[in-house]
Amino acid sequence: MIAILKNGTTPSQTEHLIQWLKNMNLDVHVSHGHEVTILGLVGDTSRVDMELLNSLEIVETVKRVSEPFKQANRKFHPQDTVIQVGDIKIGGGNFAVIAGPCSIETEEQIVSVAMAVKASGANILRGGAFKPRTSPYAFQGLKDAGIQLLLKAKEASGLPIITEIMNIRALELFENVDIIQVGARNMQNFDLLQELGKTKKPILLKRGLANTLQELLMSAEYIMSEGNENVILCERGIRSFETYTRNTLDLSAIPVLHELSHLPVIVDPSHATGKASLVPTMAAAAVAAGADGIMVEVHNNPACALCDGAQSLTPAQFDSLNAKLQKIREVIA
Ligand code: PEP
Ligand code: MN
């Protein structure tokens, strides 16, 4: 349920109303817009007398929010959410360029890729330490040691870092990680989401291989309902009948998620296509469709990569992609 307050409502009137609603055991989320203040009510709103609330002097309108996601809903929070990561902002017109290898392999590899992508304009470094592989016999990532190497690359390059968590038991290793990634396969690991909701870290939540956008938003809600509002949504392609590409990039996810939610939307064209040759075109399409950022796999030697070499760009390819994306952003601004 949302209550839109009248223009001119004083802070003390607003506070008084919030206390009254909190006494009904509701969580109240306040969104101060340019013109109006919106109170988003979460909890058992069946006990709220809508007519009484509507009749209050300071209340303009009261509406039920029919969607099951509340805190992620744009109706609760009409302005775009802007996530702050160090000096970098994501969302609300601030664009994130996240780049780096699928997995961290050696210090030399991660540091050299970090320096290269930074020089090309990336503002966040990615690298997997815990890898969710389809086969238990495939390279599983360097795990703890991988995180340590990623921290070295953070120090060397000055870039904030993002890496994937697979199990909440590893959380303490993520203390100096700037953004925690929840991979597609864990999008509905609700225990993991709830535990991450108890942290204050920005969470990049990837859409599951076969999940709807509403399910993605409900997973964001799991994190937000525990108190962590720093959620970034990521479209990374979904399963379809097409086999030429690794997945099918759902570009319409960008405007749909922007319509439904205030959270930033990032696109990962690498896992969406599985082919380096297709990554620049789909990254460009994502930018043109209004994405708040892209996440691209870049490897210093894709032919020898331990994971996802076929979809990894070389630093030189990433450099020319970034120059092109910059031009598209200028055109659509
Ligand atoms: C990744 O980004 O490293 C990854 C494993 O992606 P996804 O969860 O989208 O498959
Ligand atoms: Mn990968």
Secondary-structure topology with pairs:
Blueprint: E1 2-5, H1 11-22, E2 27-32, E3 37-42, H2 50-55, E4 59-63, E5 83-85, E6 88-90, E7 96-100, H3 107-119, E8 124-126, H4 144-157, E9 161-164, E10 179-182, H5 190-197, E11 203-206, H6 213-224, E12 231-235, H7 253-260, E13 265-267, H8 269-273, H9 279-288, E14 293-297, H10 315-332
Parallel strand pairs: 7-8, 7-14, 8-9, 9-10, 10-11, 11-12, 12-13, 13-14
Antiparallel strand pairs: 1-3, 1-4, 2-3, 5-6
The protein binds phosphoenolpyruvate (PEP) and manganese (II) ion.
Residues 102, 271, 297, 307-308 line the site of manganese (II) ion.
Structure characterization notes:
With 333 residues, this protein is α/β, with parallel strands linked by helices. It has 2 domains: 2-63, Phospho-2-dehydro-3-deoxyheptonate aldolase, domain 1 (Alpha-Beta Plaits); 83-332, Aldolase class I (TIM Barrel), CATH 3.20.20.70. It is built from 10 helices and 14 strands. The chain has helices at 11-22, 50-55, 107-119, 144-157, 190-197, 213-224, 253-260, 269-273, 279-288, 315-332; strands at 2-5, 27-32, 37-42, 59-63, 83-85, 88-90, 96-100, 124-126, 161-164, 179-182, 203-206, 231-235, 265-267, 293-297. The strands form 3 sheets. It has an 8-stranded parallel beta barrel with strand order 7-8-9-10-11-12-13-14, surrounded by 5 helices. A 4-stranded antiparallel sheet has the order 2-3-1-4. Helix 6 (213-224) links the parallel strand 11 (203-206) and strand 12 (231-235). Helix 3 (107-119) packs parallel to helix 4 (144-157). The longest helix is centred in the last third of the chain and has 18 residues, at 315-332. Bound molecules: phosphoenolpyruvate and manganese (II) ion. Phosphoenolpyruvate (PEP) binds at residues 102, 128, 132, 164, 183-185, 206, 236, 271.
